[in-house]
Design a protein that fits this description.
Layout (H helix, E strand, L loop, with lengths): L1 H9 L16 H10 L17 H22 L2 H9 L4 H39 L6 H34 L4 H4 L4 H29 L11 H4 L2 H4 L4 H48 L1
Amino acid sequence: METVSMLLSTHQPLRSISLPTRIHPSSQRVEALLNHFKPQNPFQSISRTLCFEADTIQSDLVVLAELYNCMEELLHSQQTQQDLLHHHNGKLVEYSLDVSVTLLDACSSSRELLLNLREHFQTIQSAIRRRRGGNASSSIESSIYEYDCFRKNAKKEISKQLCEMKRTGNKVKVSSIMGQDQNMIFLARVLIEASIITISIFRSLLLFISLPRLRTTKASSFISKLNPSKLFSSENEQKETDFASFLRVLETMNDSICGLEGGLGCIFRCLVRNRVSFLNMLAH
């Protein structure tokens, strides 16, 4: 985790990309989208990994999807394909294919984790809404226990994905794959920066899922308040207030998760198309 952060921080600030003369018109839009992720000042990290707000991550996923769509147009250019394949016998294509495996795996894992997280939140919601029954305490406690077990297992998967992205990130060596040709310098930088940005956003998303504490609007710990022994020892009036608060938090989290799932679904399709484009280059 620290290595990925170091990789991103040591890459600052990003160098500006000079547009080559023989390149697809979409290159200007690609450059603009890459600039969106650049720090606004020397002290701001490209990854913005200190901000794990769901809205911020979702917004980044939307821009990232547009970046990949523009890159896809760029990759379909005959000139681009010739440059990539002729550069060191397709070394940049092979690099991109290697990176795509890690990114697709991280994306799939993140989607699965978000799906499971949403299902656990919905189970807790249902248990709280059925709290009028005599076994209300047992039902809520059981659903929260299952949620805690999920989080413990999720952290193992998250740690695995972060390690894989660290390994992939360490392969990003600009000097080893760039030559003197202006077109290749541009293409190499686009592919490398897109990889770094994607790793950064996935890292933020995985850390968002793994955070031990999710804050409510009253700045009280969401996890600690989901404690059955505290809930059922409260006075009835306070208990109902707490339950209503829990439900609002869960509903907000469900909405956020749905938005993130939609963004990841779009990114997954972009990554698949990107990989297919590179495979087709090798096939020709």
